[in-house]
Specification:
heterodimer, A: alpha+beta, Uridine Diphospho-n-acetylenolpyruvylglucosamine Reductase, domain 2, Uridine Diphospho-n-acetylenolpyruvylglucosamine Reductase, domain 3, 3 domains, 29% helix, B: 5-stranded mixed β-sheet, 6 helices, binds flavin-adenine dinucleotide
């Protein structure tokens, strides 16, 4: 089977109308960097595809401090100087130049691990996802967006339209640990947002990627950080907890054992570096 | 089989093709138009040998439905090559032994072209990061990096 119809809607309204009309038989594609390899390989054989490149969802803007990102904004645009440094850093470590020019921010929320590096940074910044369907919309926190491996809260007639990222209000750090310096699948990806009061952690968000069915928050480790100074004992205990609570898997890149171990090592290094920040 | 007509600018020239839905730009270039400098490698976006410039930005043509580049400007290695002689990047690749089997060369040169257009004085690390999506399995990366440095010098009138 080859593709019989390729729709390129010119607006979000047109896109959601097409989705309402065709239902789940219409495959949604944004940058196509995940969808197209599967079609080329014959793994995916859709009859009808909707491309979102012309749907007017490629934009970046600031609203009351928050960064509002259209779902089909290419990853490359997150390297722009007015983007929050944590997101710039995450984008720089996501894929390669050509793929960043094609792959989208919204698409990064749907990719199977170990991919989804940018999504890890978005999770640490408590991003909100605006979901739209014909005749309605809702906003969900990214932390409640995933429901399982390659599963989200999205209904068949819904699209991700926009991602809203509140301005970071504390210390942030990002680290992608892979086998190579660049263009590498993650062994683990970490993004951290800490709000300090004095020398104590008042609020912590620890986001982990490539060590679970989707990017996840290390909730027990976060709870153990709150109220504590970032000293060596805390860092060791918290990293241990995060390693225990993540759900790593084995693939061609790394074993589950090694991934768990690297959560502990890399998180400890990241938090230690954050402790000396002023 | 439904067919669509797609118009885009190829190497400065208005071009029109009749295609099956979602035919890739790679297939259009190579099999419909006979522009074979753009290679067909992995078809997974992973090797970079099919890299072309769309509005001056590198993209892998194997993952790009040609409908998506309607009315856009596409540049391939053919578009870089002057009627007589070679483009400074081609000359630098040639003189620095940066091409052996040659399969990765068009993609390498297209990325290098975009890099030097954005940043005429890239340092070594910047060159390496820009080329990270382009695989070479025989020449080795050192001569390729040297060729880009050399091309930058040539294009900057001899200054690094
Ligand atoms: C060589 C290569 C290297 C890569 N390296 C990395 C890497 O290092 N890190 C990483 O995270 N990823 C990597 N990727 C994966 C991918 O490029 C990115 O994750 C990218 O952000 C995916 O976005 P896309 O728009 O191309 O997705 P698409 O292929 O267009 O879509 C992927 C899925 O998301 C759904 N979708 C997309 N947008 C929407 C929307 N707005 N609403 C509803 N559903 C939607 C589609 O239906 C589809 O199921 C790599 C890919 C390649 C080919």
């Amino acid at each position: 089977m080859t593709v019989q119809s390729y729709y390129l809607p010119r607006s979000l309204a047109e896109a959601t109308a097409l989705l309402a009309e065709h239902g789940p038989s219409l495959l949604v594609m944004a940058g196509g960097t995940v969808v197209m390899p599967l079609i080329n390989e014959g793994v995916s054989t859709p009859e009808k595809v909707m491309g979102l490149r012309r749907a007017g969802l490629s934009y970046l803007r600031r609203e009351d401090g928050a960064l509002v990102i259209g779902a089909t904004t290419p990853l490359t645009r997150l390297l722009e100087p007015d983007v929050f440094p944590l997101l710039r850093e995450a984008a720089r470590h996501t894929a390669t130049w050509s793929i960043r020019n094609m792959g989208t921010v919204g698409g990064n929320l749907f990719v199977p691990p170990p991919a989804g590096d940018l999504a890890v940074a978005l999770l640490a910044l408590d991003a909100q996802v605006r979901i739209v369907r014909a005749g309605g919309e809702r906003t969900v926190p990214l932390s409640g967006f995933w429901t399982g491996f390659m599963q989200t809260v999205l209904a068949a007639d819904e699209l991700v339209a926009e991602i809203r990222v509140p301005e970071p209000a504390g210390r942030v750090a990002f680290r992608k640990f892979g086998r190579k310096q660049a263009n590498t699948p993650a062994i683990v990806t970490l993004a951290v947002h800490l709000r300090m009061v004095g020398d104590r952690v008042a609020d912590a968000r620890l986001a982990l990627g490539a060590v679970g069915p989707h990017p996840l928050r290390a909730r027990q480790a976060e709870a153990a950080l709150v109220g504590r100074p970032l000293d060596a004992d805390t860092v060791a205990a918290v990293s241990e907890l995060a390693a225990a609570e993540c759900e790593p898997f084995t693939d061609a890149i790394a074993s589950d054992w090694y991934r768990r171990r690297m959560v502990k090592v890399q998180l400890a290094r990241l938090l230690t570096a954050m402790a000396t920040e002023v | 089989m439904p067919a669509t007509i797609v118009r885009f600018i190829l190497n400065g020239r208005p071009t029109e093709v009749m295609v099956r839905p979602m035919m890739t730009l790679q297939t259009v270039l190579r099999e419909v138009l006979g522009y074979t400098a753009t290679k067909a490698g992995c078809k997974q976006g992973g090797c970079g040998s099919c890299t072309v410039l769309v509005n001056g930005e590198p993209m892998v043509s194997c993952l790009l439905p040609v409908e998506d580049v309607a009315d856009q400007e596409v540049t391939t290695l053919e578009g870089l090559t002057p009627v007589e002689g070679l483009h400074p990047l081609q000359q630098a690749f040639f003189e620095n032994f940066a091409t052996q089997c040659g399969y990765c060369t068009p993609g390498m040169i297209m990325v290098a072209k975009a890099l030097l257009d954005h940043n005429p004085h890239p340092d070594r690390q910047t060159i390496i990061e820009a080329l990270a999506g382009n695989y070479c399995r025989c020449t080795g990366y050192e001569p390729i990096i040297r060729a880009v440095e050399d091309a930058a010098r040539r294009l900057n009138g001899g200054r690094p």
